[in-house]
Write a sequence for this structure.
């Protein structure tokens, strides 16, 4: 008599990765003042990740947007989403060889919900919608303290240089 009962395998836990500023600069060609993410956390392959942007008053766009009432330009939040998605895609690749370039392809359904101001920490929550060869489509949600401030769907393409 066998008293052993088979137990179904438990799901394998996902190991989430991170990318500090040095890893981001190795993955993306952007540099100050156009590097708009400080780190990426909770990277799940090329499926999702969260980019972090610490918004500070000494950023150059605040000199003119707007004096006396600084507001982060919405287009820079969209770019922060794209940079987060690009860093996720590049960090997920295992192909050796030439450096990669990430091209921003499309922006759809962009909505701006609430102003972002100096002192805010923006979280770019990026989730893959689909992937085909060297192209990715992502849904992005920018949040400050858990509140949705911006959302958009974007696509990007990686080209081996």
């Amino acid at each position: 008599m066998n008293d052993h009962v088979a137990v179904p395998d438990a799901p394998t836990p996902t190991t989430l990765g991170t990318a500090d500023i040095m890893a981001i600069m190795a993955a993306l060609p952007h540099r100050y003042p156009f590097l708009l993410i400080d780190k990426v956390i909770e990277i799940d392959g090329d499926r999702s990740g969260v980019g972090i942007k610490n918004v500070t008053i000494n950023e150059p766009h605040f000199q003119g947007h707007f004096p006396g009432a600084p507001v982060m330009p919405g287009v820079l939040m969209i770019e922060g989403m794209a940079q987060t998605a690009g860093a996720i895609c590049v960090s997920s690749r295992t192909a050796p060889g030439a450096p990669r370039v990430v091209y921003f392809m499309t922006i759809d359904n962009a909505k701006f919900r609430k102003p972002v101001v100096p002192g805010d920490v923006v979280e770019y929550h990026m989730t893959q919608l689909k992937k085909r060869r060297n192209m990715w489509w992502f849904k992005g949600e920018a949040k400050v303290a858990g509140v949705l401030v911006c959302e958009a769907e974007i696509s990007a393409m990686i080209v081996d240089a």
